[in-house]
Amino acid sequence: MPTAEPPPAPAPGDRCPCLSGEVFGACCGRLLSRSALAPTAVQLMRSRYTAFVIGDAGYLLATWHPSTRPAALETDASLRWYRLDIVRTDRGGPLDTSGVVEFVARYRADRDRGELHETSRFTREEGRWYYVDGDV
Fold this sequence. Notes:
Domain YchJ-like middle NTF2-like: 40-134
Number of helices: 3
Distance between the termini: 31 Å
Protein name: UPF0225 protein GCM10009747_35400
Largest sheet: 4 strands, antiparallel
Family: Belongs to the UPF0225 family.
InterPro entries: NTF2-like_dom_sf, SEC_C_motif, YchJ-like, YchJ-like_M
Helix content: 10-25%
Number of strands: 4
Strand content: 25-35%
Radius of gyration: 14 Å
Pfam family, one: SEC-C
């Protein structure tokens, strides 16, 4: 059976997959290219969602806190992530050291549809935000 390939990264002027309303190059693209750090926990959450959309496991691992990071990660290219809704945030601003982001991410797999509803915890160390863990 052929293995599905994740979609390519959007062009810099394309709409960002995280649905922030920004173009990819001004939103998650600068974070995924490692040319900038996420200023807030919610921006890191959005960029991690976009990394799932395009199958960038390296970015997901790099933004996962070392205390909870798995040794390896494989994204599932058969899932097509198509919508991210931020439900709420608690802290996670540029001056905070921790934050919480609750979100719903919707996907398709063949003819099935599903969603991931998670409350994620983030920590900021030395100016860099990391995903710690989440409750589904």
